[in-house]
Design goal:
The chain has a single domain (about 5-150), classed as Roll (Nuclear Transport Factor 2, Chain: A), CATH 3.10.450.100. By secondary structure, it is an alpha+beta fold. A hairpin with a 5-residue loop joins strand 3 (about 110-120) and strand 4. It has helices spanning about 15-25, 30-50, 55-60, 65-70, 70-80; strands at about 5, 90-100, 110-120, 125-135, 140-150. The relative contact order is 0.24. The chain is built from 5 helices and 5 strands; from the N terminus they run E-H-H-H-H-H-E-E-E-E. The longest helix has 20 residues, at about 30-50.
Length: about 150
């Protein structure tokens, strides 16, 4: 049986990447505070998805996320990827890492978060959530991935 996967690629224009890099270089970053804030934002965003408010999760996501996938496609992807695991239960953080240079994304401020999440049938999945500092909008989600825990 194949488990559907969900992957939203991170895409922005080169101008946005240059602006993000310039902002990152301007001042030292309190990475511990960034991780705490990003984790709070991730939990609020995941709560929307958990409640089935998928279109609203797209509205609350980073601009790079919205440019990478339409709201309609996002809704289809989430339903397809999460349906075999519903309902999603308790989450336990297993990774929290601040980075300015994640793979397959332009430079900027990101926090890579992973949660081991209880799902139906006594199983667990690993959810990866990638908040980014989205200009004046603050921390927003730029990527989400879910896979069955091996």
């Amino acid at each position: 049986m194949t488990v559907p996967s969900l992957r939203v690629s991170l895409m922005t224009s080169s101008l946005a990447a240059c602006v993000a890099a310039a902002l990152t270089a301007q001042a030292p970053v309190d990475t511990a505070a960034a991780v705490r804030t990003a984790d709070t934002v991730a939990h609020a965003w995941l709560a929307l998805v958990d409640k089935g408010e998928i279109a609203k999760s797209w509205d609350e996501a980073a601009l790079s996320f919205q440019l990478a996938v339409t709201k309609t496609k996002w809704t289809q992807l989430v339903v397809s990827a999460r349906a075999p695991f519903e309902p999603f239960g308790a989450r336990h953080q297993i990774l929290a890492r601040y980075t300015t240079d994640p793979p397959n994304a332009p430079p900027g401020q990101y926090v890579l978060l992973q949660y081991k999440t209880d799902v139906s049938g006594g199983r667990q999945v690993v959810e990866t959530v990638v908040p980014t500092l989205d200009g004046k909008r603050g921390w927003r989600i730029s990527g989400y991935f879910v896979r069955l825990e091996q």
